[in-house]
Amino acid sequence: MGVSSYLDLRAATRARDRSLRDKVMSLEEAAKLVTSGEHVALGGCTASRTPFAMIWALIRAGVTDLTVSRSIISTEGDLLYASGASRHIMTSWFSQGIVWGVSKVMRAYTESGRARFEEWSHMAMGLRYRAGAMGVPFMPMRSMLGSGVLDRAEGAKTLECPFTGETLLLVPALNPDVALIHVQRCDAYGNAQLDGLTFMDIDMAMAAKRVILTTERIVSNEQIRRAPDQTKIGFFTVDAVVEVPFGSAPHECYGLYEPFYSHMDLYAEMTAKDPEAGAQAYLERFYHEPTNWAGYLERIGMAELLDARRRGSSIYDD
Amino acid sequence: MGVSSYLDLRAATRARDRSLRDKVMSLEEAAKLVTSGEHVALGGCTASRTPFAMIWALIRAGVTDLTVSRSIISTEGDLLYASGASRHIMTSWFSQGIVWGVSKVMRAYTESGRARFEEWSHMAMGLRYRAGAMGVPFMPMRSMLGSGVLDRAEGAKTLECPFTGETLLLVPALNPDVALIHVQRCDAYGNAQLDGLTFMDIDMAMAAKRVILTTERIVSNEQIRRAPDQTKIGFFTVDAVVEVPFGSAPHECYGLYEPFYSHMDLYAEMTAKDPEAGAQAYLERFYHEPTNWAGYLERIGMAELLDARRRGSSIYDD
Amino acid sequence: MTTDLAHAGLARADLGVAPAAPAHTASELLAVMSARLLREGQTVFAGVGIPLLAAILAQRTHAPGLTILFEGGVIGPFVEPGKLPPSTNEQRCTRRANMLVSITDVLLMLQRGYVDVGFMGGAQIDRYGNLNSSFIGDADAPKIRLPGTGGGNDIASLADMIVAMKHEKRRFVEKVDFVTSPGFLRGGSSRADAGLPAGGMFRVVTDLGILGFDPESRAMMVLALHPGVSAETIRAHTGFPLPVPDDVAVTEPPTAGELAILRELDPARLYTA
Amino acid sequence: MTTDLAHAGLARADLGVAPAAPAHTASELLAVMSARLLREGQTVFAGVGIPLLAAILAQRTHAPGLTILFEGGVIGPFVEPGKLPPSTNEQRCTRRANMLVSITDVLLMLQRGYVDVGFMGGAQIDRYGNLNSSFIGDADAPKIRLPGTGGGNDIASLADMIVAMKHEKRRFVEKVDFVTSPGFLRGGSSRADAGLPAGGMFRVVTDLGILGFDPESRAMMVLALHPGVSAETIRAHTGFPLPVPDDVAVTEPPTAGELAILRELDPARLYTA
């Protein structure tokens, strides 16, 4: 996970087809763009706009040994560990959510040394993506200094500032092999317009070497062009566009649906007693048995979906 | 124009009243917030969203010896020199616009050594504001290296990258004393929603130690809160809000009016033969003789204003 | 210091016994006492749970112009009673906000110096105010792997901190197992020496009292006790020597009005049970 | 190189004399010849004037999927014929764009490596492709203070460059008075040594021919001449020794179709007179 040389980074970008072209494909086709062992960055944060449909497709496809990074990791981290899709996660916080307490699945895998949870501060994660997005090897920052987090972080360096003499931390750029980002809408070329909270997604898309977008709906390029100042991820960074309604269920998608709280409670219950067996049972029931994404949503249940949808519109009903 | 120490920068921010409060005032009152000798940053770029009303008020108020920075400086640079409001401008490009050729007023003042035009690359200007916005002493970048521009730039330093061994340029943070930014709309507290091109304005507002907003119209805080993801400049950075319709005339304001081309031609004509006398005559006629902003617009002329307005809506008529 | 005490609604112990206070939970006590530390016009970076409840309570009492920030990228929201967000990153956090920005940018506001107070809960704290939310036991072979820092490290590195937590001996330790979020590190000037010249621990609010830090040694000390709490009690619940002044202040108990607001905000008692 | 020549619509001189071409101005010749150098699917950072006209011409002929960027922060616009923008920073530039970003961010796309070609005009160029748009004469006491770099330095530092300019001896000089936008600096590896390992001068398009740079020495050389231009003529208009191969290519003259598009785009002949 070292910092790329500038020439390597440029060569990787140049080798891509960055032209304005139709990139629409299925979840299964998009999953083939990810190779075991790669570094995959996940958009969204905690229980918001998590690219669950794409994670679901990758776990079903049997991808392994990914290094996964995200601002804050929720249940998808448990499932990546439990499925073997990843045994190395870089993030600032890892558990389903404060109200559910510490993740027992995360604990089981990390405390037994079978999986690694590499911790960085929240801002450090953000600035690592930002450095990657800007094409520079590092960003200077002023936190993490003096802490145990810094002692265990891989590759950060301190610098005596040549302008002020102050001690600064330089955090190394992240240029993930692939970023998976779920959006409210984009066109067939990958121009994405995000509403509400953008988290680290904009920097992540610019930093990554490939981007797979899942989207609640595909809109025309004409619609995008009517409000170009709303486009937050440009087509030129995007390699695949997959239309997946409720693509971040059971997490939320701003303005459309809130988290599926009962389902999240169900997951917590299933993993409460025997976390590993519970996670495996969850994977079997919700990831492997359904034959498609609609089947997955069906297992979560219609009533739950309608309730999340009703609550989700509240931001615009106010 | 050295880089502030972190403690000085923090102290200056802490001393400000950053609460949600009404900041509406007149151009004349806002002009009193700027002191001779300060560093003033100008929002917009070339002939777009230039904070002309505020510049007009400062020149009328007799402010002198400002250091002025902007992404790209147009005619306002000539007028700042000619009025004595500034004799030191930092920017990447300085002239009315490509179609009018090299500014004769700029030439007269700089070639005679009476005024300084400190040149940085466009990206360097942007990253200097960005470093200031982020609260770090510098940003690393990969242009300007090897050029004459770097030889003459004040305070940039090279660094052998501790991660890659590459040569990087570190450009020093700019934290202007005051930023003058013209926006389409904001509320009385200074929450500004910009349409279209944002130039360097967002970083500039975060970098500056004070912000004066001029705005085409003041909207309610309720309206701002209905679309908080459209707020680009937060109230907490803002010290003054002045409602000034056509506040960037004769330049454009995205979606509302295009540049007043005939007036810009008139200025070019007035300064073609004897640039200094021409600029003084222009200042007299358009800056000193009118008694208020409406009077200034009246001198430009109603037909010109209506034409600029008609052309300006074109972006939404498409 | 006097101003701080007065502002926080503290009364000197010798001013007399406080009147009988309405019944309340320990969490409600934390929320009320923390809210009183916040001032009109401040900008507060708040975590969910007690910190958020306290910030909203302050907005609805003495600090209507308080600006709340969430690390999800939210500036100046007004959270709806009964709809408290499950984290700082969901749309519930954004209700009627003034501005939304990226996570990185809201954290950079902290670095730029726009935040007065960072306000969070704590799992384990030590004498110098260092917080641990990463590992119980040895970090290389932990007994418990905790969720980690989130924005905690950034907030504690860059703002004046208020920490609200239960006062238990296992939580108030001589030295945290792991410094997730820096307090004054090893005391004295060690925090500034590490490259953290700004911010630092301001107050620790517990169900037993309000604690501050000695300006020189940077060690934790008692500033005030809640009504009915003795110096012996608070010392007995603390895993390191804790100075308690002889004339230590006693806090004013939560008022019925303050408690009513908290109960309106969290009717299901998710955070205040 | 062969591919480049073929792509650019060049024919070997010995293939015969070109047919009589429609009348055109020198500026139109520059625009057409430059447009032919652009390829389908590329991303081009274009200045206003000839570069923008050439990029739109390429979009409307062989490269419909060409993406144009403007330094004002515009990605993938479609400029309306007859409404050419006065700079790269006005709303006319944004018409039917795919995306608008800040100036800094569009320039960072260049640094991130998302731009294939930078395309601009030039006032003064030297043997190694260095461009001057800052000072005529000594920078400390200039005869003429020019407007400066704008985004030119950034583009020339970070992208493969096409420069379109009039071929005059006073513009093609041994050494520019001032390096505003870097070409190959002092030739050889001096550009990479200065910290600019990527990008560099690709082509200089003039009204006399098309020039490239020797892969080793990085000195300018002729790749093709326009019809009717001799090696002697182009050398006479150049202020430094300019290699011209014996079997130098000759360009295909502008077609009526190409010229018609240019005239539709710029009916007032602001840039093509």
Describe the structure.
The complex is a heterotetramer, with two copies of chain A (318 residues) and two copies of chain C (273 residues). By secondary structure, chain A is α/β, with parallel strands linked by helices. Among the domains of chain A are: 174 residues, Glutaconate Coenzyme A-transferase (3-Layer(aba) Sandwich); 35 residues, no CATH class. In chain A, strands 1, 2, 3, 4, 8, 9, 10, 11 and 12 form a nine-stranded mixed β-sheet that branches. In chain A, a hairpin with a 6-residue loop joins strand 6 and strand 7. In chain A, helix 4 packs across helix 11 and helix 6 packs across helix 8. The relative contact order of chain A is 0.16. Chain C is of the alpha/beta class and 273 residues long. Chain C has a single domain, classed as Glutaconate Coenzyme A-transferase, CATH 3.40.1080.10. Helix content of chain C is 24%, strand content 22%. Chain C has an eleven-stranded mixed β-sheet, with helices on both faces. Chain C has a three-stranded mixed β-sheet with strand order 8-7-12, with no helix packed on it. In chain C, strands 9-10 form a two-stranded antiparallel sheet. In chain C, helix 2 packs across helix 3 and helix 3 crosses helix 8. The two termini of chain C are 32 Å apart. The N terminus of chain C is likely disordered. At the B-D interface, helix 5, helix 6, helix 7, strand 7 and helix 8 of B face helix 4, strand 10 and helix 5 of D.
Helix content of chain C: 10-25%
Q: Any idea what the CATH architecture of chain C is?
A: 3-Layer(aba) Sandwich
Number of strands of chain A: 12
N- to C-terminal separation of chain A? 45 Å
Q: Mind summarizing the main beta sheet of chain C?
A: 11 strands, mixed
Number of domains of chain C: 1
CATH topology of chain C: Glutaconate Coenzyme A-transferase
- The general outline of chain C is globular
Order of the strands making up the biggest sheet of chain C: 1-16-15-14-13-11-6-2-3-4-5
The ordered string of helix (H) and strand (E) elements of chain C is HEHEHEEEHEEEEEHEEHEEEHEH
CATH class of the domain at 22-123 and 175-246 in chain A: Alpha Beta
Helix content bin of chain A: 25-40%
> How many helical stretches of chain C?
8
Compute the average pLDDT of chain A. 97
Level-1 CATH class name of chain C? Alpha Beta
Low-pLDDT parts of chain C are: 1-18
- Report the CATH topology name of the domain at 22-123 and 175-246 in chain A: Glutaconate Coenzyme A-transferase
Our Rg estimate of chain C from Cα atoms comes to: 18 Å
